[in-house]
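Protein record
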Amino acid sequence: MTKKLYKLMDWARIEGVVYSEEDHPHDFLGLKKILGGYLLQAFFPGATKATAIVKSGNDAKEYKMELADEAGFFAVTFTGFAGVDKLNYYYKVTYEDGSIVEIEDPYRFKPTIDEKVLKKFNAGICYDIYKYLGAHKRTIDGVRGVSFAVFAPNAMRVSVVGDFNKWDGRMHQMRRLGNSGVYEIFIPGVKVNDAYKYEIKAKGSVIMLKADPYGFSAKLRPDTASVVADIKTFDFTDKEWMKNRAAVKSDEPMVIYEVNLSSFTADEENAFPNYIEIANELCAYVKEAGYTHIELMPMMEYPLDESLGFQTIGYSMIGTI
């Protein structure tokens, strides 16, 4: 390593990343402007080589990165471009098994949650926080991926883990957003239906894997991982019913049938029917029994079938029954 590059290294923070205890990795990972040029830093656990491909307009150059720490921390300095805001780049990374992977840098993207939302959330008045916390499919600066955010105020470090990073908590360490207790990261390349969890490192170096409390979908037991879902693609077809609902009389007696849909069916081989399969049987039973209304027991994700939905662990209604 050159003396210039060595002096630019913040070894304390590098150690924090290597030992997965960093809660502000975006502050120094990625591309930074320095006197006379640029500094690019990245952490690829298990990698032996890394090359940065830097693009500005039609101009592209390759820079071989130096291994600053044997755990997989790489860095390089370069010059010759006009401004850091106009630069795009990605990495070609070689791993110990000889595989070569192209990686978009998650640490070059700005936060996906602004301060106004965080202020409302901390005040307890952000009533649509599900739009920000959890996993959300996004395209940022032409790059497709998923933004992740979770509230973990007492954590030392939080990472997103999944099949896309071999469930390695060192790979995608999240940033703490101010004093909000929210951790956030945008990861390019993650897709709908990818499984994930949050790896949380607490005081005393206790590491825990947690499903997403704001996840929109989850794996079926005995698996416990959350699943990236895109709820914006769901097409509601109840416009006519909503329109006619206003005409329903509200001053007549009500007899309500409370039901957990997954336990209603008598077909033990098909313990989790879908809504279409159960609708005719349920409606016929309710009418014959003299009920006027149906109350569905909690439909969110829950960890125990015997709880009948009361022990909710997420706000998902996808894949519950």
